[in-house]
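User: Second chain of the day. Same drill as before.
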Amino acid sequence: MEIPLFPLRTVLCPGVALPLHIFEPRYKLMVDRCLEDNSPFGVVYIRDGHEVGAGELSVAAIGSVATIREAGRYPDGRFDLLVVGTGRFAIESVDTDREPYLTATVIELNDDVGDSERAAKLANRTMRRFVTYLRLLRPGEGETGEEIDVRVEVDAAEDAAEDAEEAAPIEGSEEPSGARRRLLIPDDPTTLSYLLAGIVQIELPRRQALLEAETTEERLELIDRLLDRELWLLRRRLRLFNPAADVATQRRS
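Assistant: Same format as last time:
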């Protein structure tokens, strides 16, 4: 499969939505073509270099397929997009000459659960720890902080989607109005592993490592270890919550 590539200093995980502002001419052309053909593009993490302008780039070998869910066009041709990660791919080769933007021949990666029984146990464990993580992220007395601002897209049964009150919620940070956001917990360990990989506030190389995990079991084990570290820090208030740049609205070309 051949797709256009959009290198970014962020990691897109399947099931997680990413807002983008597109202003550089080559990427405006890329988005125009994707919208015309109703086709996706690939988001790859920049390990070294810059996403804007010319210059050498070093990108990760594994990225996510980005499907456009919403697109708004400005009179000057800029775009505001909302894309969702809908799968992973491995890059086989990159063409830097045919188009003004990068294109790549990629292989779509299937999700291997690994040991399904252990993956299910890890999913239950990491979910419980994640709920504790969200609670500890809330600012304490005299502290200030912002809520996690991550949009997700997960599959759910229609009846559960229609009646959210019957679904098991994750309680996130409180809104100024006091209303609490609810997130449907996916039953599938693989979906859950990507969801947590996209939400937990960690360094980008660590998030990329989660994306690259060969099995769901391995990904959940890595998340469990990361939550171990984060919970230790948060319980001691050694690190106050500050959303990572990759979670905020991306101002990228």
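The radius of gyration is 19 Å.

User: Great, on to the next one.
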